[in-house]
Amino acid sequence: MSRPVSGGAAGPLAGIRILEVGTMLAGPYATMMLADLGAEVTKIEPPNGEISRQVGDSYFASLNRGKRSIRLELTSPTGQRRLAELVAESHALLVNLKPSAIRRLGLTYASLRQFNERIVCVAITGFGLDGGDDPAFDYVIQAATGIAAMTGDPHGPPTLPGYSSADNSTGLTAALGLLAQIVSGRGGQVDVSLYEVMLSQLNYHASAYLNDGKQPQRRKFGAHSYYVPAQLFPTADGYLALFITHDGFWKVFAAEAGVDGFATMAERAAHRDEVLAAVTTALATDTASGWESRLRPLGIPAAAVRTLPEALAATPETIVTVGDYRLIGSPIRIAGYQPRYGPPPVLGEHDV
C-alpha cells in the first residue's frame, strides 16, 4: 500500500522561501526535494509555462509536486519589478538556464543583492557560469566526462544508463549548496555545473588516473575495478548482482556456493579471471531469486536483477499518492516528520 499524503510536524525547512526559475529536471528536482522537507517553493514560469509541462502531466508532477506557480515575463520591466519584490522576501533563488540567459534576466547575486543582501542565488549550468553556453543535456555530459566510455560491454559500444543520472545528481548537489549557504547566514552566488558534478562522482577512478596513471577499464557485467567478485552474474534463471568487498563476505559466500580458494582480497584481485569463472559456474546451479533468498540471510550483498515494476511492487511504502498521481516519495526520512506532499501547481495558480 502506498503512503498517503499527510501532515504532522512542521518540516525542517518550514519558513524557508525558495524561488525557482527551473526547466526540465535538474533545477526542479532540487527544489522539489527542498519542498518535501517543508520549504515554500515558488516556481516562476514564463507565460506559456515551463517546457516540461509539454512532456506530460505525470512527468511534470514527478518533479514539481508541492510547489507554487506564478507567471512572470522576466524580459519585461513589470516582470523584473515583481522579481525584485519576491527576492526581497525570499531566502534563495535557484535557476537552471544557460549562463547568458541567467545574466540577461538578472538572476545572479550581483544583480539581486540590491533587493536582498542575504539572498542565496544558485545557478545550475552545463559547464559553470563562466563556462559558456554550449548545450549541456544529461547524456551530453555523460559522454563528455568519460562516463559513457567506461560503461557497457568491453567489446561493445559505449553505453548510457536508462535514467538521467547527471541531472539528478546535479539537482541534489545544488540543493546541498543552497542549504549550506543559507546556514552560513550570508547571501552569495552558488555555481554548480553538471560537468563538474559528474567528474566529482568519478572520485576513485579519477584519483587512480591522476595519482597512479591507471585508466578506467570497461569490464563485462559492470565489474568493479577493485573488488572481486563484484558485478552481475548470469544464473540458471536471471542475473544476480553480487558485491563481495572483504574477506569475511567471501568466506561466507564461498562456503554457501561451494567455491574453494582465493581467501584474500589481494588473491582474488590477482586472479580475477579464475575467481569469476568459479563464481559463474557456482551461480549457474540456482536461479537469481534463489541465490538472493540464500545469500541475504547470511549477510551477503546480493540482489536479483528486477524490472522497475517489480521493484515498485516489492517496496510499496516508497510510493505516495498526490492528487491524481502516484509518485515516489522523498527518500529522506526524518523522525516525527511526514512530508505534506502537495499536488503539482496549475500554471499561474498563485499569480497575484
Properties at a glance:
single chain, 352 residues, alpha/beta, 6-stranded parallel β-sheet, 3-stranded antiparallel β-sheet, 14 helices, disordered N terminus
How would you characterize this protein structure?
The chain is of the alpha/beta class and 352 residues long. 37% of the residues lie in helices and 15% in strands. It contains 14 helices and 11 strands. The chain has helices at residues 26-36, 57-64, 77-88, 99-104, 109-112, 138-144, 165-184, 194-200, 203-212, 247-257, 265-270, 272-283, 288-295, 308-314, and strands at residues 17-21, 40-45, 68-71, 92-95, 120-125, 188-193, 230-234, 239-243, 302-304, 319-322, 325-328. Strands 3-2-1-4-5-6 form a 6-stranded parallel beta sheet. The chain has a 3-stranded antiparallel beta sheet with strand order 7-8-9, covered by helices on one side. A two-stranded antiparallel ribbon has the order 10-11.
Number of strands: 11
Give the low-pLDDT segments: 1-6
Please compute the radius of gyration using only Cα atoms.
Answer: 24 Å
H/E topology pattern: EHEHEHEHHEHHEHHEEHHHHEHEE
**Strand line-up in the sheet with most strands:** 3-2-1-4-5-6
Instruction: Report how far apart the termini are.
Output: 39 Å
Specify the biggest β-sheet.
Answer: 6 strands, parallel
Provide the helix percentage.
25-40%
Please identify the structural class as seen in this structure.
Answer: alpha/beta
Number of helices: 14
Strand content: 5-15%
Average pLDDT figure: 96
Shape: elongated
